[in-house]
Amino acid sequence: MAEREKSCGPCTMCCKVMRVDELSKPGGTMCAHARPGRGCGIYETRPASCRSFACLWLLDADMPHRFRPDQTKVVLDQDHDGRRLIARCDPANPLAWRRAPIHAALKGYAQDHWGTGKVVMAVAGRRAWLITPKEEIDLGEIDPAARIEVAEDAEGRVSVRMK
Ligand code: SF4
Ligand code: SF4
Q: Structural domain of residue 149, as residue ranges?
């Protein structure tokens, strides 16, 4: 595999927003091993879920530096089957996804994928929003594992069902 062109640098945002089951660390709390501005204090022995995680900024060689999560306070992620693009925000800064440049990027992705079954969401702790090309729908607090079904009627009204 080709080497990544990017590195995390001083970013440790995923060490805060992501859950780490091996460490019993809930999402939204900074990991005790994180060294803000420097990275992981147990890098060589970090858990498997930390080793396997890479945010979309890190994976996408073309995504500009200004999208790096420590700049935006948003970790761009997708679920395992690629059906949700998720803007994961620090619960202390839950509306970070509304700021530039993330907001326009989320709207653009929603526009490009609307109707394909892929949805765009913002999440801060258990609070979630659905981002459509035309609006942002506050879903309140949801089960992060819930299945989400989105439908649009002939008048363009969007409804969301959680299973
Ligand atoms: S959020 Fe992305 S860039 Fe930041 S530390 Fe995690 S993987 Fe690296
Ligand atoms: S173990 Fe290291 S990589 Fe994993 S969340 Fe903690 S600081 Fe981040």
A: 14-162
Place of tokens 């498997």: 48
Atom of ligand 2 nearest to the CA of 20: 5
Exposed e or buried b for every residue in 9-26, given b needs 16+ CB within 10 A? Answer: eebbbbbbbbebeeeebe
Within a domain: residue 147?
A: yes
Residue 3 lies in a domain: no
* Residues 134-160 pLDDT 10s: 999 999 999 877 888 999 999 999 999
Q: How far is the CA of 159 from the centre of ligand 1 (A)?
A: 33
Distance 156 CA to ligand 1 centre (A): 37
User: Does the beta carbon of 15 lie inside 6 Å of ligand 2?
Assistant: yes
